[in-house]
Automatic annotation (TrEMBL):
Residues 51-246 form the Metallo-beta-lactamase domain. It comes from the Bacteria. It comes from Pelotomaculum schinkii. Pfam families: Lactamase_B. InterPro entries: ComA-like_MBL (IPR035681), Competence_DNA_uptake (IPR052159), Metallo-B-lactamas (IPR001279), RibonucZ/Hydroxyglut_hydro (IPR036866). This is ComEC family competence protein.
Length: 292
């Protein structure tokens, strides 16, 4: 059986790739999950951008969404990654909150790609990075949609993208303004927390929002200020993705967060250890690959 698979793979590589002229580089699978995923899939890529967040979502119908764009120095890597996957347009662009490790390269991404809708939480930052983002938005004549609880980015048969937070309008910590996004494709869901901390997590629970998800993009790079036990027990993820740089100055992830996830039996995937992490789902099965 194994020999047959290898033979089929060789035949595919020899004829399949040559025949259809694929430009996308083949991804290295590390065999994390071998469940079959049929065509018509949703793909969620957690890009390894060092200490920061950048998530590409490819919807089954060909539309794309980018949530955050790493730091200022990640622009070339992000644009190369998107172009290598044939991304010609970003239908939805989300800046979860105005910290540099999330919106750093959004300005360049906006200049580089046609953008449909852009969503940002209603909060500003007195930084050069934030001003550059606003200039890029104005330069393209884009209107900003406020990212807040209750906003539905997409709501279609079998597919929805909803903003679950921020719920409040005033927080002491900029992290709690983070747009928290829930993507549901048939039976499979992803919860992208940005840098939301326990205050926002508590508000989501109190609001009765459906936070349950198969894949949790852990809040605030695995800091101890996020992933409260109550929140984790309701989300009940199978996978937790932590987006962070190796040996970062913030000592992320916090050992307590890792311990909480381990105790809950969650499969922890870190971009500093595995590189870019790609989930593919047909709405029922989930396949995980990594791209170094
Ligand atoms: Zn951050």
């Amino acid at each position: 059986m194994k020999r047959l698979s290898i033979l089929l793979l060789i035949l595919f590589l020899a004829f399949g790739l040559a025949g259809c002229g694929l430009t996308t580089p083949p991804e290295q699978s590390n065999g994390l999950s071998e469940r079959e995923v049929s065509p018509g899939a949703l793909r969620v890529h957690f890009l390894d951008v060092g200490q920061g967040d950048c998530i590409l979502v490819q919807f089954p119908d060909g539309r794309n969404m980018l949530v955050d764009a790493g730091k200022n120095d990640s622009a070339v890597a992000i644009i190369d990654y998107l172009e290598a996957r044939g991304i010609a347009r970003l239908d939805y662009l989300v800046g979860t909150h105005p910290h540099e490790d999330h919106i750093g390269s959004l300005d360049t991404v906006i200049q580089e790609f046609p953008v449909g809708e852009i969503l940002l939480p209603k909060v500003t930052a007195n930084t050069r990075t934030f001003r550059e983002l606003l200039e890029a938005i104005a330069g393209k004549g884009l209107q900003v949609t406020t990212a807040k609880a209750g906003v539905n980015i997409l709501e279609e048969e079998g597919l929805s993208v909803k903003v679950l937070a921020p719920i409040g309008s005033s927080y002491n910590d900029l992290n709690n303004y983070s747009a928290v996004i829930k993507i549901t494709y048939r039976e499979v869901s992803f919860l992208l927390e940005g840098d939301a901390e326990s205050e926002s997590e508590k508000e989501m629970l109190n609001s009765g929002a459906d936070v349950r998800a198969d894949v949790l993009k852990v809040g605030h790079h695995g800091s101890n200020s996020s992933t409260s036990p109550a929140f984790l027990s309701i989300v009940k993820p199978e996978y937790a993705v932590i987006s962070l740089g190796a040996d970062n100055d913030y000592h992320h992830p916090h050992p307590t967060t890792l311990a909480k996830l381990k105790k809950a039996g969650v499969d922890i995937l870190r971009t500093d250890e595995r590189g870019t992490i790609v989930f593919t789902t047909d709405g029922k099965n989930i396949n995980v690959e990594t791209v170094k």
